[in-house]
Amino acid sequence: MIDPRTLEIIDQVVAPEFIGGRITATEFENQFYVYLTGQTTVFRYIYKDRSLTLDTAWNPGTVVLPGQSGPTAVAVMNDWIIVETNAIPADTPMSVIAINQADALMQFSSQPFPALPLRQSWSPSAVTVDPLRNRIFALDGLAGRIAALELRDDGLHTVWTAPQRTLEFLALIGPAQRRVLVGTDVPRDQQIGANTQDWVVWRNADTGDEIARSPLLSAVNGGTMVEPGYDGRMYFLAQNGKIIDLRVRPVRPGKK
Q1: How far apart are the C-alpha atoms of 56 and 242, rounded to whole Å?
Q2: Among residues 64, 168, 75, 183, which one has the least CA distance to residue 124?
Q3: How far apart are CA 73 and CA 132, in angstroms?
Q4: What's the pLDDT tens digit per position in 121-178?
């Protein structure tokens, strides 16, 4: 842990195992926590008095299924943390997992894409969450689909799925009752992960219906997302170093 103003090392610890996903920090019930995803589980550290301590009382156990690879980075949604598995390609469909912050044994898990082409699954980016509506947006690049799930008292429920080939983080924009989901889409004739082009797609977050699609662009810079800006702008960070300003506008009569 580093002070962002002075770059002083505040504290450092050795993680229990190799950590693949980004580190997530949050505050819950007046306590600061740091979440890390390992190969089969999620670890939590307590940050207090400028030191990090592994929270051994919070232990979700193994959260991946046989044949799955480890989880992505943690996203925080109210009393829950959310991960999806198969951060590296796997032969078993990915799972979306919700773990309660107060009780690590309180968990829900769902596989929104149970049927896989060629028995392959790959979900390297963390889920996107909407805490105001308990919604989770997940992706699987090799399954070629994205999904919206809702966390309810009795578990995770799939609201919709849609065909979209992406490995990048999904951006959620707009007011609470008019959410829009924005992400990339790889052409079907290109290998995902080695593609040279992308579309950007805007979807109604409630239904999954496509609202708009950009012209075909040079491939996005991997490990990023289509970044939201002011006044409806979205910024596309291309592999060739260009930053493209994208805006959705109504179609004029007679135009397509």
Answers
A1: 46
A2: 168
A3: 21
A4: 999 999 999 999 999 999 999 999 999 999 999 999 999 999 999 999 999 999 988 9
Q: What is the pLDDT of residues 12-62, one digit of tens each?
A: 999 999 998 899 999 999 999 999 999 999 999 999 999 999 999 999 999
Angstrom CA distances, 105 to 37, 100, 117, 147, 207, stand at 16, 7, 33, 25, 32
Give per-residue pLDDT as tens, 222-250.
889 999 999 889 999 999 999 999 998 87
- Whether the CB-CB separation of 238 and 246 falls below 8 Å is answered with no
Spell out a b/e string for 143-152, using b for 16 or more CB atoms within 10 Å of the CB, else e.
Answer: bbbbbbbebe
C-alpha–C-alpha distance, residues 121 and 98, integer Å: 19
Q: Each residue of 39-48: b (16+ CB within 10 Å) or e?
A: ebbbbbbbbe
Strand 96-100 versus strand 107-110 pairing type: antiparallel
| Cα 252 from Cα 182, distance rounded (Å) | 22
Tokens of 252: 């004029």
CA distance 141 to 170: 12
Asked if residue 25 lies in contact with residue 33, where contact means CB atoms within 8 angstroms, the answer is yes
According to the model, what pLDDT value does residue 254 have?
Answer: 60
Question: Angle at Cα 125 formed by Cα 144 and Cα 184, nearest 5°?
Answer: 50
Query: Cα angle vertex 235, ends 229, 236, to 5°?
Result: 160
